[in-house]
């Protein structure tokens, strides 16, 4: 069984910062792509940032320059440093990972709420 557990959400004022973390646990061979999605009320889930096992990153235009994604392959963890937060960043943030055990499956965390007040 594989689990992704997120932490670090909360309430912050516009212009502030938050750091989200995600830890993968369980039995698996490898973790491939990892990333963060978010879903605001009434909107579709959207990709925020992703990182490959080799460290290549990809960001949505909405967060480029403000958010930084990073991972620690030895600890099976994923972080998202969010700076210069805006009210429109308010959403539930989900960690995901493509995990091989031995076939590749998509796994999702339970979500963590980020609320940015104006």
Poorly predicted ranges: none
Structural class: mainly beta
What gap, in angstroms, lies between the N and C termini? 41 Å
Order of helices and strands: EEEEEEEEEEE
Name the beta content range.
over 45%
Q: Radius of gyration, Cα only, in angstroms?
A: 14 Å
Q: How many helix segments?
A: 0
What percentage of residues falls in helices of 4 or more residues? under 10%
Count the E strands: 11
Mean pLDDT: 96
Indicate the overall shape: elongated
Outline the biggest β-sheet: 7 strands, mixed
Can you offer a commentary on this structure?
This protein is mostly beta strands and 118 residues long. The protein has no helices and eleven strands. It has strands at 2-7, 10-13, 18-26, 30-39, 46-51, 57-59, 67-72, 77-82, 91-100, 104-108, 112-117. Strands 2, 4, 5, 6, 9, 10 and 11 form a seven-stranded mixed β-sheet that branches. A four-stranded antiparallel β-sheet has the order 1-3-8-7, with no helix packed on it. The protein is elongated and about 45 Å long.
């Amino acid at each position: 069984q594989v689990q992704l557990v997120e932490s670090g959400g909360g309430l912050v004022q516009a212009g502030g910062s938050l750091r989200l973390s995600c830890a993968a646990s369980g039995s698996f061979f490898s973790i491939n792509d990892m990333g963060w999605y978010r879903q605001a009320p009434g909107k579709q889930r959207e990709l925020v940032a992703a990182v490959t096992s080799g460290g290549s990153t990809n960001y949505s235009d909405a967060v480029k320059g403000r958010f930084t994604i990073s991972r620690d392959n030895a600890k099976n963890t994923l972080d998202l440093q969010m700076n210069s937060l805006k009210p429109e960043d308010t959403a539930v943030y989900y960690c995901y990972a493509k995990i091989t055990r031995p076939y590749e499956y998509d796994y999702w965390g339970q979500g963590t709420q980020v609320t940015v007040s104006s």
